[in-house]
Write a structure and sequence with these properties.
With 544 residues, this protein is an alpha/beta fold. The protein folds into 4 domains: 2-171, 2-Layer Sandwich (Beta-Lactamase); 200-376, P-loop containing nucleotide triphosphate hydrolases (Rossmann fold, 3-Layer(aba) Sandwich); 380-460, Orthogonal Bundle (Helicase, Ruva Protein, domain 3); 487-536, no CATH class. The strands form 5 sheets. Strands 2-1-5-4-3 form a 5-stranded antiparallel sheet, sandwiched between helices. The chain has helices spanning 2-20, 26-41, 67-79, 81-88, 106-109, 152-199, 212-224, 241-250, 269-277, 294-297, 313-325, 351-357, 362-368, 385-400, 408-415, 422-436, 455-460, 501-511, 516-523, 527-536, and strands spanning 43-51, 57-63, 92-94, 116-125, 133-142, 231-234, 259-263, 278-279, 291-292, 302-306, 327-329, 336-338, 342-347, 371-374, 405-406, 441-442. Residues 196-203 and 464-489 have low confidence and may be disordered. The longest helix has 48 residues, at 152-199. α6 packs parallel to α13. The chain is elongated, with a radius of gyration of 32 Å.
Length: 544
Amino acid sequence: MPERNSNLSLISIYEIGKLLSSSLDLRKSLNEVLNLLASYMRMRRGMVSLVGEGGALEPVAAAGMTPEQMKTCCPRLAEGVAGRVLSTGMPIVIPDLSQEPLFDDRLAWGEAVDGEAVSFIGVPIKTTDKAFGVLSTTRVWDVAGGNTVNYESDVRLLTMVANLIGQTVRLHEAVASDRERLLMEKHRLQKAAQGERQTGPVTLDTVVGVSRRMRDVYAEIHQIAPSRSTVLLRGESGTGKELVARAIHHLSPRKDGPFVKVNCAALSETLLESELFGHEKGAFTGAMQERKGRFEMASGGTLFLDEIGEISGAFQAKLLRVLQEGEFERVGGNRTLKVDVRLVAATNRNLEEMVTRGDFRADLYYRINVVPVFLPPLRERREDIPLLTEYFLERFNKENGRQVALAPEAMKVLFNCNFPGNVRELENCVNRIVTMSRGAVVRPADLPCQKTQCLSAALWKHQREAPPPTVEFEPPPPPPPAASGGAGDYVPPDDGLPGTPRDRLLRAMEKAGWVQAKAARLLGLTPRQIGYALKKYEIEVKRM
């Protein structure tokens, strides 16, 4: 029998640990824990109470009780037996509620029937010496035959459960605090970035682009760089996350320190641990000498972790400790090392969805997602395509001693490409075109996509989304000051029907029911461009 009870306790602790780590909804998790205890312990009633802002015990979860019973019995518990558990930090056992005159919640906690005794057990919830909650339970014993009951195993099990609950509550409080701090930091940076945009366009020497979307990114980078905050770069593959990470480093007070990068997706968990933390001599086969890890190498500078969404769950816990404490041990070592590193991470994964599925730790998510920067895909900043193309073309010519140019018609073809691979795909396309070009000027007929020989198209042919609408290409003008409307820079694309640009714009607005966003999609423009064009041609928007 003792062995059976021991196995049952181990199973229940294991299941409770899984429940507490499976959801960010604390009340839901605690209710599930109480329901599980009711099954394993034949518990009749159960309640988890935590100290609220006013200092009094407040019910958070309950099993075997109605909401009305929770409201009526919790205040009396706080003043009575549960209050003593909270103040002393010690468990309290009442073998038979019917024999306890100080316990006035017998109706709420369950009346005994013939041959039964209802016992009460209350244990403190704490992570240090001071309790901040109480786990209260009742269960029924058959005492008709004069059997004696040993409560030690129940108290021991409930104490372990209360410790798990205490750790979970503190973790949720830390996550909520990090989230609040993140939102405040985001709000502050948005206000500061808005102020930067009002003073004029901001650029970066290392990043090419004059579109409004990129100027917004530049303003955020200039605001973020001087701080010590962790930055998470979000965006599709090929949008230039490493270039932005380098720009943040070079604009920061750490610019004279090292910039160290690691591609987390390129290494297995074991290799990644050794790569980041280093290893001692003899730590594993082939470790012939001591080796510093990337965290040590980046001390005083910036560590860039690319594809951080690819790391395993086990390694996430190890990384979290370094980010929280700033210390770690090398593989095979027991000496604790401290480092001063600013972290810039990047991912093209949906981390929020991964957290929901349990593939990414919520506490690590809040630790790295302090200041998120979203990099737009190339299809959302098409006005940068000609600039990027000229940049890659000039670099190719310089490296290969060539003098190749693109005809305006060829540039127009590139301007209308979707480029799912973003800037990286555009660079690959330009290099391939110029390499295969036999003349000094690349014409549309020279482009692989015009001869159904585009290699990238084979990669995206199964993509479900429709190709983007063709828009009129015009060489981009210099970026206007942010305060100006820029209304003269946007001309509605030719829709194939006669008339002036104003006529084309009117036709699109009428077809869209005077909804600017819908008209923008019809013309392949952005809502902002539609607004500028309406101002330019002095078209009054009709209210339908």
